[in-house]
Amino acid sequence: xxxxxxxxxxxxxxxxxxxxxxxxxxxxxxxxxxxxxxxxxxxxxxxxxxxxxxxxxxxxxxxxxxxxxxxxxxxxxxxxxxxxxxxxxxxxxxxxxxxxxxxxxxxxxxxxxxxxxxxxxxxxxxxxxxxxxxxxxxxxxxxxxxxxxxxxxxxxxxxxxxxxxxxxxxxxxxxxxxxxxxxxxxxxxxxxxxxxxxxxxxxxxxxx
Length: 208
Ligand SMILES: NC(=O)c1ccc[n+]([C@@H]2O[C@H](COP(=O)([O-])OP(=O)(O)OC[C@H]3O[C@@H](n4cnc5c(N)ncnc54)[C@H](OP(=O)(O)O)[C@@H]3O)[C@@H](O)[C@H]2O)c1
Hints:
Shape: globular
Number of helices: 6
Structural class: alpha/beta
Radius of gyration: 16 Å
Order of helices and strands: EHEEHEHEHHEEEEHE
Distance between the termini: 27 Å
Strand order of the largest sheet: 3-2-1-4-5-6-10-8
Largest sheet: 8 strands, mixed
Bound molecules: NADP nicotinamide-adenine-dinucleotide phosphate
Oligomer: single chain
């Protein structure tokens, strides 16, 4: 498949790029800092631009099969990034509408699972990271009201542990006792989701 990877220079994003190549996909990344993808020189197409601009996103996305996004605010979240995910969702949905691409797989946050008890994800999120919860919620709202074939992937705490392939996936819920997951495992699920229609219109909890 021809994939556009957004947030390609981040922890999950780099894994998405690496594994997408391993799985035989072609990868285009739109980034603000192309030098961070030097190690993939000759293997992927790198475009520089503003990920909050529909005008920058549209020509990059045109002609691809799907968009996989691991975009998100760098931590700690600055005041300037308080609405970053929502702005990104608005830019991306605005851009895609003018292309023939419909499939989008987006990394969101496990904090949005209101029914999770172990861990009490929503409560923890509201207490510790209220801004992130509000922004991710606004982002999901934008995708949910778009006409795209979206999938929201909601992990709990992300780690940099190596790929295991041993992770759990639940439609509409956080897996029980799902406290953490490695970025490499999230990346694999996101690519697999982009490869099929099975998860279209679904909010998916993933954890170790
Ligand atoms: N941290 C956690 O435990 C956790 C848990 C659940 C969900 N999540 C969510 O999972 C996603 C991925 O997390 P991660 O830790 O793997 O990502 P990350 O390492 O923080 O990387 C974020 C990516 O977004 C890009 N980005 C951020 N602000 C940007 C801007 N203004 N313009 C252009 N690009 C920008 C970064 O580009 P640069 O390299 O140029 O900065 C980078 O590629 C995020 O949405 C995060 O909210 C995180």
